[in-house]
Amino acid sequence: MLGSSSTTVKNLPLKRRLCFLLKLVCFVSSVLIFCEFLIYYMVIFQCRWPDVKGAAHMSEKETSASVLKAIILADTHLLGEIKGHWLDKLRREWQMERSFQTALWLLQPDIVFILGDVFDEGKWSSPQAWADDVRRFRKMFRHSVYTELVVIAGNHDIGFHYDFVLVNSVAMEGDGCAVCRTTEAKLVALSHKLNCSQQKPNNSNKRCSDVEKLPASEPILLQHYPLYRKSDAECTGEDSATPEEKNIPFKEKYDVLSQEASQKLLWWFQPRLVLSGHTHSACEVLHAGKIPEISVPSFSWRNRNNPSFIMGSITPTDFSLQKCFLPFESRVFTIYCAAGALLVILVLAHVQLLTPPFYFAQRLISKHKAV
Q1: How many C-beta atoms lie closer than 10 Å to residue 166's C-beta?
Q2: Which one of 51, 204, 250, 278 is CB 3.0 to 4.6 Å from 255, fit for a cystine?
């Protein structure tokens, strides 16, 4: 009997340690699950699709058929093997993957546009490194067959004009190079087709007689480079450029398109909206007093603390936009720091390193009550 009681007493500290260790594992696991999974659902769940004028009077079936739900994001900058540190790649790519997959699951868009600079080292990558980057991209931005993904090339994907150009706004150099001539010719042909499509049936035009007609709708222009503006000085909002960056003049053909290329695009297409990336910061500009341009901030923590994306409800005649912020990196870091500090206090208290101060305080309180 005596031996059995003695064994039970000896086993008590071991059981208490195991119980305490289990509590610590549960605490750490809860913090990790919250910061790496749940926080994305909590933040993105607050985002709502904007209403379009006229759609409010439609039935749910009519609305889903006529309103295109689009997500627009930019500048993911997946790091490559040259400049990418493994920890930086792991952290930021996980953030973008969780953000994208959570947005798809909660918002269920019809289409997603990525406005260039998907990769950070596209113009330097070897064929093997490029293949690995593309594999990682497809894993991070995987999507169902019900959602279409459209990717626009940026300067970090294929280089600036003087390195190598395939298509997109980086081909609007205006110096008569072979690729620029081809791109401009295609844009002029598309502009002609769109303009002919918007003419009234009774309006006869010989130049449009043999042209394939498109749905009569003012286009939305999506590109990587912003149209020409002097700087971000007039941009406002919590995700606009910093005060120091706002006053730095933009370089034509590097930070923004040239004035000539911008005027051509506006004249050719007369868009109702322009969406661009490249600057990593938000900005709203009005061109020719009537055409709005929205610069979409970066989607990655690597480029800003408060990344976001644009939600657009689009019809043939109208559109409505809403910004959806992702979890702030600083807030996630603060949660980890607070959890780490609490964990240290719990461990010290368990090993009784914090017992003397607590015991002294308890004695003072007891004496005060006795008096």
Answers
A1: 12
A2: 250
pLDDT of residue 157: 61
Q: How many CB atoms lie within 10 A of CB 78?
A: 25
Check whether 285 has a pLDDT greater than 90. yes
The tokens for 155 are 């300067």
Sheet containing 220-222, strands listed edge to edge, beginning at the edge strand earlier in sequence: 220-222, 273-276, 291-295, 283-287
Q: How confident is the model at residue 81 (pLDDT cuts 50, 70, 90)?
A: confident
Q: How far apart are CA 227 and CA 207, in angstroms?
A: 29
CA distances to 23, 174, 185, 335 from 158, rounded to whole Å, are 51, 18, 21, 38
C-alpha 316/C-alpha 218 separation (Å) is: 8
pLDDT at 318: 93
Parallel, antiparallel or unpaired: strands 68-73 and 111-114? parallel
* DSSP code, position 175: S
Rounded distance between C-alpha atoms, residue 156 and residue 298, angstroms: 13
Q: Residue 148, SS3? A: strand
3-state secondary structure of 225: coil
Q: What is the pLDDT of residues 117-144, one digit of tens each?
A: 888 877 777 888 888 888 999 999 999 9
The per-residue pLDDT for 201 is 57
User: Distance between CA atoms of 293 and 274, rounded to whole angstroms?
Assistant: 4
77, with CB counted inside 10 A (0-12, 13-18, 19+), is buried
Best CA proximity match to 307, nearest among 326, 323, 293, 290: 326
DSSP code string of 55-119: GGGS-HHHHHHH-EEEEEEB---B--TTT--HHHHHHHHHHHHHHHHHHHHHH--SEEEE-S--B
Q: How many helices (H) and strands (E) does the chain have?
A: 11, 9
Phi and psi at 78, nearest 5°, equal: -65, 125
Distance CA 63, CA 304 (A): 35
